[in-house]
Amino acid sequence: MKTAPMREPTYFVLASLFDGPLHGYAIIKRVEEMSHDRVQLATGTLYTALDRLAGEGYVELVSEETVNGRPRRSYGLTNGGASALQAEATRMAEAASLVIDHAAARSPRIVSKLRHA
Q: Is 110 inside a domain boundary?
């Protein structure tokens, strides 16, 4: 069954958890780093997304502790989340290859520009 393409923030939130659980602030920073600052999440937006992703079975709360009087929750990627992330990465790679392959047939110079953009 095909699923709808992921929005970019969702993709990067899931990708940020690929190497293991992170707390909210670390997710925000990792998303910024991975997206080269294209995706910048406000705290409220992140936690709304995490609640939605948990409801979809893509992430789970793995720990909660109190640091300086404030709760710190860490989230991890579920097997379902890892599968969805892989499927989206494959979909994007296939879509990109259509353009790159088409451009290669028309002009190698365009391909060089696409690959170095």
A: no
CA–CA separation, 32 and 40 (whole Å): 6
In this prediction the pTM is 0.82
Q: What is the CATH number of the domain that holds 61?
A: 1.10.10.10
Domain-located, residue 82: yes
What phi and psi values does residue 71 have, to the nearest 5 degrees? -70, 140
Q: Report CA 52 to chain centroid distance, whole Å.
A: 14
Residue 34, phi then psi, degrees to nearest 5: -65, -35
Q: Is 54 helix (H, G, I), strand (E, B) or coil?
A: helix
pLDDT in tens, 4-39: 789 999 999 999 999 999 999 999 999 999 999 999
Q: Looking up tokens 């939130």, which residue turns up?
A: 13
